[in-house]
Amino acid sequence: MPADTQKGRELPKGLGINTPGAKRFWRTWSTAPQTAAWTETDWAELELTTKLVDGLFLGDLKLAGEIRQRVAKWGATVEDRARLRMTFQKPGEDEPAATPEAPEEMDMDEELYKLLNGGS
């Protein structure tokens, strides 16, 4: 197993997953680096999403959009991880140096926080 993966969890038999694609989806996500910080609610979301993936592989293509929205929240793509400011440190790597943002670049969360808390 590569150093950047987690041990993962077994696919719950009670989910009744039938397709190899959904089984591969579970295996991929259950061992992804993101899972190191997951709580039970995250694992429950993976179970629900895996059921949707099973339906997709059984031919219900309408599920694709919902699946994409769900996996984006977990950092499925490089773009998703950049948006979430998600990085993974490989074992033995030093802490990366923080790069300050330019003052004129304020993310939407920070902007909303300031707006809701009276400015400044």
Brief overview, please?
The protein is mostly helical and 120 residues long. The protein contains five helices and no strands.
Task: Give the arrangement of secondary structure elements.
Elements: H1 20-30, H2 40-57, H3 64-72, H4 78-83, H5 108-116
Helix pairs in contact: 1-2, 2-3
Strand content: under 5%
Measured on Cα atoms, how large is the radius of gyration? 18 Å
Number of helices: 5
Percentage of helical residues? 40-55%
Unreliable residue stretches: 97-103
Largest sheet: none
Description of the structure:
By secondary structure, the protein is mostly helical. It has a domain at 13-95. 44% of the residues lie in helices and 0% in strands. It has helices at 20-30, 40-57, 64-72, 78-83, 108-116. Mean pLDDT is 82; it is low at 97-103.
Task: List the defining traits of the structure above.
120 residues, mainly alpha, 5 helices, 0% strand
